[in-house]
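FAQ

Q: What does a record look like?
A: Structure on top, sequence underneath. For example:
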């Protein structure tokens, strides 16, 4: 309170005394008791009013003791139950969180974690994954800029997340309380299995397997891969005290289209405590992407060899060269490449009018443009007899498929007759045509769609020079071959646009997040913001069905299917307004990652403790852990001085006193006939 305020209060005191004296004693010479009482009431009223007008700031000083946080974090994943440590974990967490001495020194809070981090979540040890890294992230957010100890009750076996050993700051001392039997048992396990999700039919796909052995004596183990009841690969693997890991690479045949499920098994004649980690299921989706392409040409040209080699760089493509008089049936081919069609192509073009096979038409100096005008109506040609060199300009707005600019602007020019193109159909341009850097307003490479039919047009010969130029610049034909492959891929796929597009994997591991996303488009093929999407999921074995609603996200709808048992599932996604639907299926593979460990990861927990200047403790040492925490002088309780300032006008008591004094004075004067 300032000096000016104190002087004003003293002045108010004098004024209140003076006014009450003047009103009750100066004019009234009779000193009776009632007058003294009324003058006191008047003094109180006047003084309260003046105080409210001055409105001094009242400062109150209090003290608050802030204790150091002590988070006790318990692993709530399945691995604790598998190690038969669930009851012990509950006892230890209860003993630590309810210890009165720890509560006196620390602000004790109990947390749990599995694949996420929870506060006051009951322990059931059903978590499908362990993420200790997320513990570090959440504690940093909860207790920012504070130094505090952490008690971590866990087996240290993390299944997802970044390496937790380096996740905790050094100023947060982490005391791991190890859960699990540290006795070393003989154990064989498939530590990791790597395989691509997709493979092409009739190809071989690699499977990379990492085997781990925990033991001291030399043993021989059998590793095999089964598909159904058939063993498709088998080999013997040796382990010893000095050779505890083995990396195997196996090539399997992709013989059947669809999702193919396999089982990898490692076994030996030795007794093992945990045989669940000897088996790992995996699946691969076999895709038949083979395409038969026919290149038809009435002339010999180096372009033909360049195009054939570029397309066949993808082993899923097979290219055959024909003269238009030699080819008898077009039905055996997915894509036709018509190289400089002339009068000899008339029967080919007429036959394809009925078959509607997608075509890639390449024109040049030997092309019959009148025939092209007669046999198709997407682009009409008005050509002169003069030839010209045309360079390419990449169109960045092209969106029919994804393609990088591989330097088309710097490629040698293509030769074609000069003329004018009249585009009538749904045509998009990938490469625009230029003559000496001047736009001709004609396309050089264009793609057309008409319902299920797709066509491509290249207006110029000598594309073989592009492939050579690409090799000169990059020492590889790869960029040109990818460009040609994407062109063929566009033509080989003729799926029409769908209003409902659903994205899902063909298989999932049990315990994983099973997320299915969907997009729904209106008739203008615009994303519909107000769609109502549901999914009906059916277990093929039990025939039990459930219906879930999709939730709207950023440009898509998503549904998360949690807790599904291993097995085959079919599903149908529906848009309830338009009744559009999509049906498919997926498989949940039997793989419980939390059942893989037989021992706690003491080495990593110990490294975590060393990194944070703490120590590892075991369940029988819980009292020593409590003593360690109580002895810590680096985490003292901090007493804070808190000064709260508030204006006097906020005080309700002053208003109550004023109301009482005024009302009491009025009733007293009324009762004594002084009004």
């Amino acid at each position: 309170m300032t000096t000016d305020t104190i002087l004003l209060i003293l002045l108010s005191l004098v004024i209140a005394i003076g006014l009450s004296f003047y009103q009750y004693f100066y004019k009234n010479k009779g000193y009776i008791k009632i007058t003294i009482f009324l003058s006191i009431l008047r003094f109180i009223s006047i003084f309260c009013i003046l105080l409210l007008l001055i409105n001094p700031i009242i400062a109150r000083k209090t003290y608050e003791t802030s204790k150091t946080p002590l988070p006790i974090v318990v692993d709530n994943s399945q691995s604790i139950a598998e190690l038969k440590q669930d009851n012990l974990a509950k006892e230890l967490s209860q003993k630590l969180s309810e210890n009165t001495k720890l509560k006196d020194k620390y602000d004790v809070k109990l947390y749990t974690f599995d694949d996420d981090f929870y506060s006051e979540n009951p322990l059931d040890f059903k978590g499908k994954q362990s993420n200790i890294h997320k513990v570090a992230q959440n504690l940093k957010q909860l207790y920012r800029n504070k130094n505090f100890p952490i008690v971590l009750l866990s087996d240290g076996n993390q299944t997802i997340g970044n390496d937790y050993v380096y996740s905790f700051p050094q100023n947060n001392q982490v005391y791991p309380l190890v859960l699990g039997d540290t006795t070393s048992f003989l154990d064989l396990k498939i530590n990791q299995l790597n395989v691509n999700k997709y493979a092409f039919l009739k190809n071989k796909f690699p499977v990379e397997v990492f085997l781990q052995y925990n033991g001291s004596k030399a043993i021989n183990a059998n590793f095999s891969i089964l598909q159904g009841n058939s063993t498709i690969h088998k080999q013997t693997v040796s382990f010893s005290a000095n050779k505890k890991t083995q990396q195997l690479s196996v090539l399997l045949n992709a013989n059947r289209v669809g999702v193919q499920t396999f089982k990898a098994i490692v076994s030996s004649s030795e007794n093992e405590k945990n045989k669940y980690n000897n088996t790992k299921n995996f699946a691969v989706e076999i895709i038949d992407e083979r395409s038969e392409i026919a290149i038809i040409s009435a002339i010999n040209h180096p372009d033909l060899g360049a195009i054939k080699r570029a397309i066949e760089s993808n082993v899923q493509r097979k290219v055959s060269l024909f003269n238009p008089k030699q080819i008898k049936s077009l039905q055996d081919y997915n894509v036709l490449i018509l190289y400089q069609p002339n009068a000899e192509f008339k029967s080919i073009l007429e036959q394809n009018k009925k078959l509607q096979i997608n075509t890639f038409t390449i024109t040049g100096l030997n092309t019959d443009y009148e025939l092209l005008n007669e046999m198709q109506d997407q682009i009409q040609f008005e050509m002169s007899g003069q030839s010209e060199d045309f360079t390419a300009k990449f169109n960045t707005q092209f969106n029919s498929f994804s393609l990088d600019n591989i330097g088309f602007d710097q490629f040698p020019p293509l030769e074609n007759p000069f003329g004018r193109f009249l585009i009538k159909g749904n045509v998009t341009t990938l490469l625009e045509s230029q003559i000496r850097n001047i736009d001709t307003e004609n396309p050089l490479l264009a793609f057309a769609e008409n319902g299920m039919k797709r066509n491509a047009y290249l207006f110029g010969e000598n594309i073989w020079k592009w492939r050579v130029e690409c090799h000169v610049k990059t020492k590889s034909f790869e960029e040109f071959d990818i460009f040609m492959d994407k062109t063929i891929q566009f033509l080989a796929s003729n799926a029409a646009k769908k209003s409902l597009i659903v994205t899902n994997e063909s298989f999932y591991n049990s315990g994983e997040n099973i997320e299915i996303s969907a997009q729904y488009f209106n008739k203008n093929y615009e994303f519909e913001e107000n769609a109502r999407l549901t999914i009906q999921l059916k277990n093929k074995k039990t025939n039990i069905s459930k219906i879930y609603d999709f939730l709207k996200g950023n440009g898509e709808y998503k549904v998360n299917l949690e807790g599904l048992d291993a097995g085959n599932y079919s599903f149908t996604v529906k848009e309830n307004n338009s009744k559009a639907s999509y049906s498919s299926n997926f498989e949940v593979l039997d793989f419980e990652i939390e059942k893989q460990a037989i021992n706690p990861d003491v080495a990593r927990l110990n490294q975590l403790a060393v990194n944070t200047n703490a120590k590892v403790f075991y369940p029988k040492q819980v009292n020593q852990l409590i003593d360690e925490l109580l002895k810590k002088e680096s985490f003292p309780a901090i007493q804070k001085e808190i000064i709260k300032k508030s204006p006097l006008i906020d005080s309700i008591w002053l208003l109550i006193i004023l109301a009482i004094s005024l009302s009491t004075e009025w009733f007293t004067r009324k009762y004594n006939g002084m009004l």
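Q: Is there anything notable about this one?
A: The radius of gyration is 42 Å.
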